[in-house]
From TrEMBL:
InterPro entries hit by this protein: RWD_dom (IPR006575), RWDD4 (IPR042770), UBQ-conjugating_enzyme/RWD (IPR016135)
Bias (Basic and acidic residues) ranges: 155-166
RWD domain location: 9-111
Name under which the protein is recorded: RWD domain-containing protein 4 isoform X1
Signal peptide residues on this chain, from the entry's feature table: none
Name of the gene encoding the protein in the UniProt record: RWDD4
Stretches the record annotates as Disordered: 126-167
Domain of life: Eukaryota
A Pfam cross-reference name: RWD
Cited SUPFAM superfamilies: UBC-like
Origin organism lineage: Eukaryota, Metazoa, Chordata, Craniata, Vertebrata
Length: 188
């Protein structure tokens, strides 16, 4: 079987196995996320597996860079990734995405044994309290940038491309819509 056929079969299997599972998310036909642990569990983490073109003959790309994992130290992340890479080596040449997710679920406690949850809010407040005295004595006032809300940022990002430019024709009138609204006499 070719790599593409293997991937199609595994994709179909993953969709049927994880149908209705809130922890599983298909980002694209070759990229998947799985949350190990329940929402609110301090030892929960998210694994992202992306297939290469020649997967399963070559190893998939495993990542823990999701925002969900921000409270996990990089040492713990590296340890988890190293253990998952060992499992990849054993399963090389076979469909392994399901196996890796299940391996992570079965070994969650062992993976997270050195995890000491830290909250980014405390570190931010500490940084603010440290920075406040140093900025207070300065007599210059810095101009604050206008802050956009999350919804405003999302709307702006949806309108622009990756360079921040509006796409060609963004303000063009849709001729068919315009004519249907004006009730053109030619239609009768």
């Amino acid at each position: 079987m070719s790599a593409n056929e293997d991937q199609e079969m595994e994709l179909e299997a993953l969709r049927s196995i994880y149908e209705g599972d809130d922890s599983f998310r298909e980002l694209s036909p070759v990229s998947f996320q799985y949350r190990i642990g329940e929402n609110g569990d301090p030892k929960a983490f998210l694994i992202e597996i992306s297939w290469t073109e020649t997967y399963p003959q070559t190893p998939p790309i495993i990542s823990m860079n999701a925002f969900f994992n921000n409270t996990i130290s990089s040492a713990v992340k590296q340890s988890i990734l190293a253990k998952l890479q060992e499992a990849v080596e054993v399963n090389l040449g076979t469909a392994m995405t399901y196996t890796l997710f299940e391996y992570a679920k079965d070994n969650k406690e062992q993976f997270m044994e050195n995890h000491r949850p830290f909250h980014s809010t405390t570190s931010i407040s500490n940084m603010i309290s440290v920075e406040t005295p140093s900025t207070a004595p300065s007599s210059k006032k810095k101009d604050k940038k206008e802050q956009l809300s999350k919804a405003q940022k999302r709307k702006l990002a949806d309108k622009t491309d990756h360079k921040g430019e509006l796409p060609r024709g963004w303000n063009w009138v849709d001729v068919v819509k315009h004519l249907s609204k004006t009730g053109s006499k030619e239609d009768e």
